[in-house]
Amino acid sequence: MCRFFGLRATAPTRIDCCLVRARNSLMAQSRRDLQGFDNADGWGIAAWRSHDLLIQREASAAHLDDDFRVAAARIEAATALAHVRRATVGAIQPVNTHPFSHGPWAFVHNGTVPYFEQIRARMLAGMSPEHRAAICGATDSEHLFHLVLSRHDQDGGPLLDSLAASLVQVLRWCREIGDYPRLGLNVLLTDGVRMVGSRWQRTLHVLARNGRQPCAECGRVHACDTPADGYRALVIASEPTTVDEPWQEVPERSAFEVGDDLGLRLESLDP
């Protein structure tokens, strides 16, 4: 199943409320999400500081690991990703734990490619030698990450186009084999400046926050030392982490990019 969180903001922002303190924080979702599943097979947090990617991953349950609380409390970033894993493909090991990274890029995935073993060779054939060699683990998610980056390197076009084309190709390969009711392709990909993602057969929500206001969940201001005017943030999460904010669903079967205005530009995924 897995659950993830993504943030893009106009200024450094504290994320430990969404990750630890909120009623449906990512840590709470590690123990039990809104669908009744645990996501206790690993956790990871990625953040960008002065364009440098900082990442920590552990093959342990976030709700049982004090390191998760400590890592979350340290983050003050304008871009961040976090993930709690429910393993479906690949052993429970740090190397198979999200976010996956390559250079400035980081990637999280909620879902499963059900025919991964049958299409793995095709995915590898679609990658550059650099990206084939960069794969360290055994997950469908890491292969998908490098497939997208390979296409983006080769095409040189908009990142959203590379993501959408890669996902559609995977969907077509799966369709050739059979039905794919379990297939889930919810992803987020970012280099700390650009962010794209998708929703396919898993829950996904988005929340826009404006201004430096105390949080109704933790009572603190999440924005760090920024002017009250002009602060904006966009939170993208598998499940709403808070109760009293106007979360909206990301449309099903769509790819999207986060614009400079922190709005979503949507594109239909049509295999």
Structure description:
By secondary structure, the protein is α+β, with helices and mostly antiparallel strands. It has one domain (3-110, 186-268): Glutamine Phosphoribosylpyrophosphate, subunit 1, domain 1, CATH 3.60.20.10. 27% of the residues lie in helices and 29% in strands. It has seven helices and 13 strands. A seven-stranded antiparallel sheet has the order 3-2-4-1-10-9-11. The chain has a six-stranded antiparallel sheet with strand order 5-6-7-8-12-13, covered by helices on one side. Strand 2 and strand 3 (52-58) form a beta hairpin. Helix 4 (116-125) packs parallel to helix 6, helix 4 (116-125) crosses helix 7 and helix 6 (140-155) packs across helix 7. The two termini are 23 Å apart. The model has no long low-confidence stretch (mean pLDDT 95).
Output the keywords:
globular; 271 residues; six-stranded antiparallel beta sheet; Glutamine Phosphoribosylpyrophosphate, subunit 1, domain 1; single chain; alpha+beta; 7 helices
